[in-house]
Amino acid sequence: MTGEFESRHGFPPGNNEVRLADCDDQAAARALAQVTITPADLVTLYDSIGDITWADVDSGYFLHPASGVLVRLQEYGLVDLGADQKSDGLVIGSNGGGLSYVLGTDGTVHRTRAASLDEPELDKVADDLWHLLELWERSLRRFVAHGGPGYM
């Protein structure tokens, strides 16, 4: 299977997994909820899922661990979602192309247009965290079935 993947895509397969949460992940999620307005869905997710690494799907999909989200929040603060939004957001993930996924305190998910978070331009990509995960799953299924790009 590895040889087939490499011949099809031109590089060996990377790390692709959904890692189950451990006690440290759960504690970090609770700490995150205490220091900022964190959508309950994110805390619920981190109760079961530690992080997601799909390095080989499209340019990659990465849901950062709660500890990483917390450290980034402490170092850089919330992301301004723009004047037309009613909330700020947490950087919860990224893709292999350097774009970030930002979860608004209202639950919506946005993606940056460029790799920089300095004065970011963002597009809403999902109504909520579960919608984002559904879109990622569609991309995964499409990639597995056809090897082509997904929806995100």
How does the SSE layout of this entry go?
Layout: H1 2-9, E1 16-20, H2 23-35, H3 40-48, E2 49-54, E3 61-63, H4 66-76, E4 79-80, E5 88-95, E6 100-104, E7 109-112, E8 122-126, H5 129-146
Antiparallel strand pairs: 1-2, 2-3, 3-5, 4-5, 5-6, 6-7, 7-8
Which class best fits the helix and strand makeup? alpha+beta
- The portion of residues assigned to helices is 25-40%
Could you describe the largest sheet, including whether it forms a barrel?
A: 8 strands, antiparallel
By DSSP, the count of extended strands is: 8
- Low-pLDDT sequence parts: none
Q: Alpha-carbon distance between the termini?
A: 25 Å
User: What's the number of helices?
Assistant: 5
* Overall average pLDDT: 88
The outline comes out as: globular
Round the Cα radius of gyration to an integer and report it.
16 Å
Beta fraction: 25-35%
Order of helices and strands: HEHHEEHEEEEEH
